[in-house]
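Hi V.,

Quick status before I head out on leave. The structure for the redesign project is tokenized and pasted below; the design run finished overnight.
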């Protein structure tokens, strides 16, 4: 289409309902043309941009304060279609947030930079993350600088945990890393997409590791395993794919670019993963990226409980499944005292009820 005609095209924005198969199909087919598979589970609001002939020429979505899947037909790249989609989404997000992230294709970086967004990290070919607003990655780096140990240490380890909930397996890994290093930064996933809320997870971990004097707990914020960096982490996945692999690499690129340097990390500890493809992809991304950036990845076998045929690998997902099925043996064997005591308290009742009603991955 001629550029002069595009400039005066009357576009129509329509809010799409992802619970309606027809609406979902329109978006999936359009994004699929640009090799960006659309996952309706990761969005809460989606629009389509139509031209005067009712042909879809663009789309965009958001979840919370994260813009996603912003795409414009190649024939309309010189029109105001992109600006119309993005401005609409930004205005909607700004109704509730002052800090906005964009999760999009790397080739779209210049378009968003033209609107004032700044690049946080890239994981080609599928994903990059940009941000816009009163807060930025610089604020998170300043937070890290404030909690950083004032002393110099030769071996500085890090572990990223969700602890949904805090198990004996988590405790073992933390104790191991603390014993083998001068200092351990324990980064706790802050995104509240898990059934155990962040404030509960933080409290149980803090109480459970109170005996370890060389551990500093760190809030993950928007930049460590969050809905902005790694949304697939919070979804069920039957097998790994390029989307999961790229999201995992994006999260590790942020860790490499900002966290390693700021905290002086030399080692990162992870547990082996045999059942969850998403976590396994995350482990592969660490092995791929971190060693070439001076960080040794220490992968340890998961902790087992029980003996003989009754032995099992401890995991938070197994605990949640046990809670769903009232399997007290697995619950008791998998958890440290602090978590068992919490689960017996009135505060835990709504969480346990939610677990029994949910089929979410976390």
């Amino acid at each position: 289409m001629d550029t002069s005609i595009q400039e005066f095209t009357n576009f129509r924005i329509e809010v799409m309902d992802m619970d309606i198969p027809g609406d979902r199909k329109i978006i999936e087919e359009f994004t699929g043309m640009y090799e960006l598979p659309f996952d309706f589970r990761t969005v809460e609001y989606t629009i389509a941009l139509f031209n005067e002939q009712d042909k879809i020429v663009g789309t965009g979505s958001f979840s919370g304060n994260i813009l996603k899947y912003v795409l414009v037909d190649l024939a309309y790249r010189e029109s105001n279609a992109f600006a119309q989609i993005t401005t609409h989404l930004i205005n909607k997000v700004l109704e509730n947030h002052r800090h906005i992230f964009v999760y999009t294709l790397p080739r779209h970086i210049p378009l968003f930079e033209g609107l004032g967004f700044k690049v946080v990290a890239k994981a080609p070919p599928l994903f990059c993350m940009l941000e816009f607003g009163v807060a930025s990655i610089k604020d998170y780096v300043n937070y890290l600088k404030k909690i950083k140990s004032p002393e110099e240490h030769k071996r500085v380890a890090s572990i990223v945990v969700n602890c949904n909930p805090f198990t004996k397996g988590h405790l073992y890994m933390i104790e191991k890393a603390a014993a083998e290093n001068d200092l351990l930064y324990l980064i706790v996933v802050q995104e509240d997409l898990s059934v155990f809320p962040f404030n509960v997870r933080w409290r149980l971990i803090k109480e459970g590791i109170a005996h370890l004097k060389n551990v500093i707990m760190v809030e993950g914020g928007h930049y460590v395993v969050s809905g902005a960096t790694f949304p697939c982490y919070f979804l069920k996945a039957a097998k790994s794919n390029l989307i999961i692999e790229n999201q995992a690499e994006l999260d590790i690129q942020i860790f490499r670019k900002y966290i390693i340097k700021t905290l002086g990390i030399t080692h990162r500890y992870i547990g082996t993963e045999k059942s969850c493809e998403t976590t396994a992809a995350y482990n592969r991304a660490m092995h791929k990226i971190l060693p070439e950036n001076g960080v040794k990845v220490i992968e340890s076998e998961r902790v087992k409980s029980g003996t003989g045929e009754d032995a099992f690998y401890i995991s938070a997902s197994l605990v949640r499944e046990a809670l769903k099925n009232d399997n007290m043996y697995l619950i008791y064997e998998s958890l440290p005292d602090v978590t068992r005591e919490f689960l017996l308290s009135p505060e835990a009742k709504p969480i346990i009820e939610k677990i029994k009603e949910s089929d979410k991955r976390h």
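Above is the designed sequence. The mean pLDDT is 89.

G. will cover questions while I'm gone.

Best,
W.
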